[in-house]
Amino acid sequence: MQQKKRIIAFIDWYLPGYKAGGGQRAFANMVSYLRDSFDFYIITRNTDFQEKKPYSGIESDIWLERNEGEKVFYTSESNITHKLYKRLYNEINPDFAYVNGVYSWKFSILPLISLKRLYFKNRIVLGTYGMLAASAIGIKKNKKLLFLKIAKLTGLYRNVRFHATSSSEVEDIKTVFGNCADIKEAPHLPVKELPEQVKIKKEKGELKLISIARISPEKNTLFALEKLRELGNIEDHIVFDLYGPVYDPEYWKQCKELIDRLPQNISVNYKGVIEGNKVFQLLAEYHCLFMPSRGENFGYVILESFMAGRPVLISDQTPWRNLQDEKCGWEIPLKVKGERLKDKSEDWTKSLLALMEMEQEEFNGLCKGARSSAEKFINNPSLKEGNVGLFV
User: Fold this and answer.
1) Burial of 9 from C-beta contacts in 10 A (0-12 / 13-18 / 19+)
2) What is residue 147's predicted lDDT score, i.e. its pLDDT?
3) Given 97, 264, 275, 369, which residue has the most CB atoms within 10 angstroms?
4) Do 61 and 75 meet the contact criterion of CB atoms below 8 Å apart?
5) Which has the higher per-residue pLDDT, 112 or 22?
6) DSSP, residue by residue, 50-102
7) Strand ordering across the sheet containing 71-75
8) Is residue 185 over pLDDT 90?
9) Peptide bond into 16 cis (omega under 30)
10) DSSP per residue, 251-274
């Protein structure tokens, strides 16, 4: 039997963590799908996102084998040095490297520097996870532009292949690194099996909305709350529950101030962070995912909502298009310019009102359309081949 090629991978947060969101789950799914083709050796933090306490029951600073056969080296951020990467590299003798993210010093930048210092000549793939989109660069813009300028001047990304998950992300990468950049498009991989579809009661005048995302400017939480406020003094009842880590405390303060000013019939609740293996069950308890994000390279939770059989109300700053034609939701135009947003407010309010006034039969059609969209995506035979092709 031919020995599988080895991939050394670097990621800030990996399983059993779940607080870093869709990108974390997407990479874990890649490992699961490609396990028959490659052996993964993953270097990651021994804590979850925004946590200081190490994972319980997981030993640090040794290679541990997880459920999908991947070997994982959990360590504290303070332990990460070129010397450690050199030792682990020599232990693995990898055929390929996969780097998650762009701006993390210890798990994105230092790995590239170390691989170059070790004269690694094989394929290096970098997943940008939407971090090169104009909307993402617009957050802390000057700092990011300075870093990217230095990176280009020093050749940090020379001979690196960029992993784009959509055609829009391909264009984002070209905008930053030029048309000659080595870019391979391969979508994120979903879980291998669709969850059981659960029906939910839908009555006219009742609407349960959910957001599963960081509380942060790029996820546009405040904007979503403003759209609810613009509905005015309606008699109908809306619940909007927010799940996800508070990424920006000052931004969350603004959100809470607006929540306090909403009419009593609009109830907004912060529910904390949900474990990744409970996302489908949670989505099924709501009528619609409401996430007017400033930009998504893929929007993993959007796919998860479709898989759970729930429509979405999102911005047009994601790869998911023609949702009304597919009868699975709405994508509303949202123009992003630096820190400022321009939108057609009436389109958001019309969509929210349409959802609110919808009755069971029409709503069931949306749920059916959402599930069909997920099935069409998942049954695409090129999904796995495209991800394998990243390393060819």
Assistant:
1) buried
2) 96
3) 97
4) yes
5) 112
6) T--SPPTT--SSSEEE-TTS-EEEEE-GGG--HHHHHHHHHHH--SEEEEE-S
7) 63-65, 71-75, 38-45, 5-10, 96-100, 124-127, 160-164, 183-185
8) yes
9) yes
10) HHHHHHHHHHHS-TTEEEEE----
Measured CA to CA, the distance from residue 37 to residue 277 in angstroms comes to 25
Q: Structure pTM?
A: 0.85
pLDDT band at 192 (very low <50, low <70, confident <90, very high): confident
Do 5-189+380-391 and 206-377 agree at the fold level? yes
Chosen CATH of 5-189+380-391 out of 3.40.50.2000, 3.90.1150.10, 2.60.40.10, 3.40.50.2300: 3.40.50.2000
Token reading at 280: 């489908």
Which residue, 176, 177, 220, is CA-closest to 316?
A: 220
Residue located via tokens 């009304």: 324
Where do we find the tokens 């010093």? 105
Give me the helices (H) in the chain, please.
22-33, 82-92, 110-117, 134-137, 141-154, 167-177, 221-229, 249-261, 279-283, 300-307, 345-357, 360-378, 382-388
The Cα–Cα gap between 367 and 374 comes to 11
Question: What is the CATH number that goes with domain 206-377?
Answer: 3.40.50.2000
Residues shown for the chain: 392
